[in-house]
């Protein structure tokens, strides 16, 4: 199938826009590769230090200049259910490396916080910044220059983007991302959402709420809704950094163990010491980035990736814009309905055909680039296959040709929607994005008076007092990256959903973020310029009429510019102490704008 003309045009303009920065990046890659492996440059004392604590078998192998040494960078902790299985991975990787004549070392750990724990709490103000901290920690882990390739163990929200940004600064090293898989299905997500709404209305108590939440989040693995963590896993497949089909295999299963071991063997095989050198800086190119964006739109993935994809691309010398995302979304049909965009969870999505089916349909429709380099070799079509165990040995077979459940997955010829999951919004309030894949068309257009808040708690209090039982555009400002670190505002979702269910026209407008679980209520998010940087949100007053139209991509305040700017802007709230927030003042002052990835590294 010929490439879709919109996908071709967007790719071409990204290549042209990135010409100079990408050329510089690739020149740095070639220079690092020409310098040869770390052991060729390190002194005997350096190398002795690197292996001083290793087992004897590894010390002997380390003397062999042809034996690859693999670095392991892990975000393991056992508070994140998705990361608990990573505890056993280093031992598996080291054993597998020895089987193919290589060595592997735990290069370093990176922080990994659980947004599910910090939602609505002060710690959420550190969440987005943790991505760049993870990238820097990855750099520290690998800076010993003693590795020929690396395996990255991480799954969740800011963690995979941070690891990839860090990996891309070591552009000459092969990189494999090794996931843990989803937890088994628990309480259906729709029932969980129902209990949350009842709790927001005061109709059930905390005991009932905790029981529902515990039945939803009940074991090791990623949360089963299609939020940022599982969107990350889809991206690592569409961008060629996973073993094919490894995203949604359950933890602590024989197939998952086999995939972890094969990941180590494959990285050893694609180092510069063999005939199949595949450095990460060549895997992540303009076409791979476009494939990732197409996958995001086709599956209705997390809004957080509108930030992360821009930052990840930048790390590879590629300039990606919100306009690129918007144009790709308009050309990409929505093929999946997974909660919060539907009732199914990721286990049901995987059983219905999963990523293998999505990739197959995107290639058949000419919506994705086949001619890319992946860790599995040349060609995205490798990712139409799924892993299986045959007599205890890992193998791959072709995935489903047809959806096994048309309520969850559909072919590109008969999609849920002719367009993808995200839209760019522009207007006199600034630029932002909105997720529309879970929002009914009749709720995507609203014109209503504003109710303005500067704290999440103030909104929730007003909701409980009944002051928002009307058509309303809820404005929550000073939630941008330079104001307070751009926390997710998912804690507001149950209350806003209740207003919608009561028959009111309602929307959220904010310079903050929503969760990857953004659902049925229209939310104009990531608005830039943010209020703390003089954006129009700082001038909005209660009662101002705001118009949001996701169909046309417009976000406007119906107050003329002169009147608006004649007002005294709201003052940026003082930074709050505690919960580690004092440590991040420098990052708040130096962070870039949301439409450039909200990064400290690429401000």
Automatic annotation (TrEMBL):
SUPFAM superfamilies in alphabetical order: IlvD/EDD N-terminal domain-like, LeuD/IlvD-like
UniProt KW 4Fe-4S keyword: yes
Chain residues that bind [4Fe-4S] cluster: 156, 223
Pathway: Carbohydrate metabolism; Entner-Doudoroff pathway
PROSITE patterns: ILVD_EDD_1 (PS00886), ILVD_EDD_2 (PS00887)
Function comment: Catalyzes the dehydration of 6-phospho-D-gluconate to 2-dehydro-3-deoxy-6-phospho-D-gluconate.
UniProt name for this protein: Phosphogluconate dehydratase
């Amino acid at each position: 199938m010929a490439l879709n003309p919109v996908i071709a045009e967007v790719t071409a303009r990204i290549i042209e826009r990135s010409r100079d920065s990408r050329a510089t990046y690739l020149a740095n890659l070639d220079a690092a590769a020409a310098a040869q492996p770390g052991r060729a440059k390190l002194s005997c004392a350096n190398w002795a230090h690197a292996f001083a604590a290793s087992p004897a078998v590894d010390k002997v192998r380390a003397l062999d200049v042809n034996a690859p040494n693999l670095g392991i960078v892990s975000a393991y902790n056992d508070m994140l259910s998705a990361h608990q299985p990573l505890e056993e991975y280093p031992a598996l990787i080291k054993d597998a490396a020895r089987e193919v004549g290589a060595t592997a070392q735990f290069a370093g750990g990176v922080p990994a916080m659980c947004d599910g724990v910090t939602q609505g709490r002060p710690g959420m103000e550190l969440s987005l910044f943790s991505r760049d901290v993870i990238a820097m920690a990855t750099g520290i882990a690998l800076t010993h220059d003693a590795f020929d390739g690396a395996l990255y163990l991480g799954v969740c929200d800011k963690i995979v983007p941070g690891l990839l940004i860090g990996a891309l600064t070591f552009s000459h090293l092969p990189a494999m991302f090794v996931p843990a898989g989803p937890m088994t299905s628990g309480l259906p997500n729709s029932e969980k959402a129902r209990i949350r709404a009842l709790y927001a209305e005061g109709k059930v108590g905390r005991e009932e709420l905790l029981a529902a939440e515990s039945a939803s989040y009940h074991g090791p693995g990623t949360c089963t809704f299609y939020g940022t963590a599982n969107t990350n896993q889809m991206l690592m497949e569409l961008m060629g950094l996973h073993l094919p089909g490894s995203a949604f295999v359950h933890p602590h299963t024989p197939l998952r163990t086999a995939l972890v071991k094969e990941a180590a063997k494959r990285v050893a095989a694609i180092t510069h010491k063999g005939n199949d050198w595949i450095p990460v800086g060549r895997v992540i190119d303009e076409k791979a980035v476009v494939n990732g964006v197409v996958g995001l739109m086709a599956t209705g993935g997390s809004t957080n990736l509108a930030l992360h994809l821009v930052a990840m691309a930048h790390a590879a010398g590629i300039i990606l814009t919100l306009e690129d995302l918007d144009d790709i979304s308009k050309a990409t049909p929505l093929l999946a309905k997974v909660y919060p965009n539907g009732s199914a969870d990721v286990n049901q999505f995987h059983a219905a055909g999963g990523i293998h089916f999505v990739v197959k349909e995107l290639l058949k429709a000419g919506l994705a680039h086949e001619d890319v380099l992946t860790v599995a070799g040349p060609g995205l079509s490798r990712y139409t296959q799924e892993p299986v165990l045959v007599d205890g040995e890992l193998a791959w077979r072709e995935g489903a040709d047809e959806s096994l459940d048309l309520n969850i997955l559909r072919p590109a010829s008969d999609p849920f929607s002719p367009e993808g999951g995200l839209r760019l919004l522009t207007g006199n309030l600034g630029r932002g994005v909105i997720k529309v894949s879970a929002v009914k068309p009749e709720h995507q257009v609203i014109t209503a008076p504003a109710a303005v808040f500067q704290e999440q708690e103030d909104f929730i209090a007003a909701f409980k007092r009944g002051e928002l039982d009307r058509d309303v555009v809820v404005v929550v400002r000073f939630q941008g990256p330079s104001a307070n670190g751009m926390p997710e505002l998912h804690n507001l979702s149950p209350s806003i959903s209740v207003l919608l269910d009561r028959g009111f026209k309602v929307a959220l407008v904010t310079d903050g973020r929503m969760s990857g679980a953004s659902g049925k209520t229209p939310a104009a998010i990531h608005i830039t310029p943010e209020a703390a940087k003089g954006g129009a949100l700082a001038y909005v007053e209660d009662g101002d009429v705001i118009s949001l139209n996701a169909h046309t991509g417009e976000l406007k305040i119906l107050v003329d510019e002169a009147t608006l700017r004649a007002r005294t802007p709201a003052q940026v709230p003082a930074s709050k102490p505690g919960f580690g927030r004092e440590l991040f003042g420098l990052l708040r002052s130096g962070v870039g704008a949301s439409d450039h990835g909200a990064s400290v590294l690429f401000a």
